Amino acid sequence: MELNKKNKNFDLLRFSKFCGCAAKVSAAELEKILAKLPIQPDKNLLVGFETRDDAGVYRLNPELALVTTVDINTPPVNDPFLFGQIAASNALSDVYAMGGTPITCLNISGFPGELKNEEIVGILAGAIDKINESGAILVGGHTIKNDQLIFGLSVTGIVKPNKYWSNKGAMAGDALILTKPIGCGVLFSANKKKFVSENAFNECLRHVATLNKSASEVMSNFEVHSATDITGFGLIGHVLEMAKASEVTCEINSSTVPVLPQSIEMYEKGINTGITMSNLESAWPHIFMQKKISDSFLKVLMDPQTNGGLLFSVPGPASKEILAALRDAGVTKAEIIGKVKPFEDKSIIIN
Ligand code: CO
Ligand code: CO
Fold this sequence. Notes:
There is one protein chain. It is globular and about 55 Å long. The protein has helices at 27-35, 80-97, 117-134, 184-192, 198-208, 213-219, 234-246, 263-268, 276-283, 295-302, 319-328, and strands at residues 45-47, 56-61, 64-73, 101-111, 137-145, 150-159, 174-178, 226-229, 248-252, 287-289, 310-315, 335-342, 348-350. The protein contains eleven helices and 13 strands. Helix 4 packs across helix 5 (198-208) and helix 9 (276-283) packs across helix 10. The model has no long low-confidence stretch (mean pLDDT 93). The protein binds cobalt (II) ion (2 copies). Residues 54, 71, 94, 231 line the site of one cobalt (II) ion.
């Protein structure tokens, strides 16, 4: 079957009330909800939901642990194949963020009654394309009828019980490395209104549809204190989760943060996402602004990402060598974006 990625005849956005990420609750609300749930003590549960990490990690035996996660998206683009690729890459990313290897996937789909079979095939084929690239396989799934088109994967991976990464463990003296530029959320909104240039949007899509596989594989050769991926809560929201779980302060050197072309400009023009402001409100009480930055740039730092980059906290002295290794492996936009300090008053400093 020939599926043309550049096919302009598709219009998945007609089913998309929200763009990309349909988060129901803000980061701050989610924290309150999870705090009310009972904990299930289990000595083999290495990572549960208490620190709101990317995936759960469960030890099967001294050599092997399962990494399990689920993620769904609404279509940020019209093309079914591309939507499938993006949603699958995004779901697989949570396994990469834990240092795991994806093994099996199940799809989770909510398809509107009017969605055409050709579109369903496109979405699934796009997902399988990325699942293939990851080395995992699709083994089944579940579909319901739903007015809002949603698609995603539950991914099961494996990791050595003593080698997984979590959002806990960042240490004073560490450097923070981000592997992809941010700003895709506002570009998806801008594309709906045809505000963004084709070049800028293609660059955005190239990053969003890139697996975090290479970045994760390169980093498995180095000492990693903490890792997560950047998704719906935006760069600062996910740095904040790492800072809180690790009980440290993360100082972001804003001038080094890689940003997608036109993303700042789109916020300047008044384009927004449904989530940026709630990300800003959730994070704001924890931020000390050491440097004045524009409102538009601040919004990009809060911009919800789909399959965003991985964020690593690594020993400071090794950071340059690590950055070079990432770039050599094709992770060309990776940057050192800040450092970790002992906790001081606020969890985040923006510099
Ligand atoms: Co994640
Ligand atoms: Co996730």
